Amino acid sequence: MPADIRADGGVARMSHPDMILEIMETTSIPVMAKARIGHEDEARVLENLGVDMIDESEVLTPADPFFHIPKKDFTVPFVCGCTNMAEAVRRIVEGAAMIRTKGEAGTGNVVSAVQHARLLNSEMRFISGNPEKHIEVIEQIIQPFKRLNDVSEFDLSIEQTPFGSIDELNSEIEQIVSQIASNQRLPVVTFSAGGIATPADAALMMRHSMDGVFVGSGIFKSSDPRQTAEAIVLAAHHHNDSAKVEEACRMAGTPMPGLEIETLDVRMDKRGW
Asked: Does residue 148 contact residue 156 with C-beta atoms inside 8 Å?
């Protein structure tokens, strides 16, 4: 659980394969497992295990300071986090099949999830209403693929990345930005995550135009994980019905303890680029 990872500190890696297999053998629902940002070989192990989806996750300690995993090289789908539209577009260009706003995992504090959802939605509306800004936006989106240039003592000019040439990425980014401008949403399923601890939190994020929510610590660190899980599902499904959300809040267990974002030693949402 992200809350445990945050409490334990140190380097957080992929879970042991035996534990993942045990979970897969125990449950009939799809199993998603986390790999470190940029750690292609952890992802290969997870793909070989047969997980249903890989989360290239900022909850784990990043392995590569320059590039994320080249997700198009895999057959298993990936979900990746974002704090804004540019980050989301970069992950989609790399091959992410699904995006989640990051929030701040393991805190039980929904404020960062709200921040990232509002920013993502506002930037997509901006793109839709300002076509003359598209070239400038595309240039801003592509810059982080050239991070090696900034740290080298030599005058590097990165033209190739694990995801293709800069020219190829530029063309793909242009297509995605055009899709966003037309539809005012990302071209992949978009969930919210990080700090969702109550049924009301889940309903709130659904009302921020999310397609769904991821909840981990908020369920398993509550007083009654089973009831809390059922309540969150109810609230997310009926987020526009305040009576149903009230019912969900009444049936849930006591929420997990929460953390103030400003007091955190480690901000997981800052990992990735």
From this structure: yes
Cross-strand partners of 36: 57
- Give me the pLDDT at residue 186, please: 98
Please check whether residue 205 is in contact with residue 222, taking contact to mean a CB–CB distance below 8 angstroms.
no
Residue 255, amino acid:
P
Rounded CA separation 53/173 (Å)? 24
Q: Hey, which residues does 191 pair with through a beta bridge?
A: 100, 212
Helices (H) and strands (E) in the chain, counts: 12, 8
> CA 60, CA 209: separation in Å to the nearest integer?
27
Q: Per CATH, the architecture of 2-270 is what?
A: Alpha-Beta Barrel (3.20)
Residues 6+ apart with CB under 8 A from 152: none
Q: Which candidate in 34, 71, 102, 221 is catalytic?
A: 34
34 is catalytic: yes
Burial class (CB in 10 A: 0-12, 13-18, 19+), 61: middle
Structure tokens at 195: 């700090």
The C-alpha atoms of residue 117 and residue 102 are separated, in whole angstroms, by 9
Task: Encode 17-53: b = buried (16+ Cβ within 10 Å), e = exposed.
Answer: eeebeeebeeeeeebbbbbbbbbbebbbbbbeeebee
pLDDT in tens, 18-55: 999 999 999 999 999 999 999 999 999 999 999 999 99
d(CA 58, CA 37): 7
DSSP string covering 125-187: HHHHH-GGGHHHHHHHHHGGGGHHHHH-SS-----EETTEEHHHHHHHHHHHHHHHHHHSS-S
The model's pTM is 0.93
Residue 205: its H or E element: helix 199-207
Do you know the residue count of the chain? 273
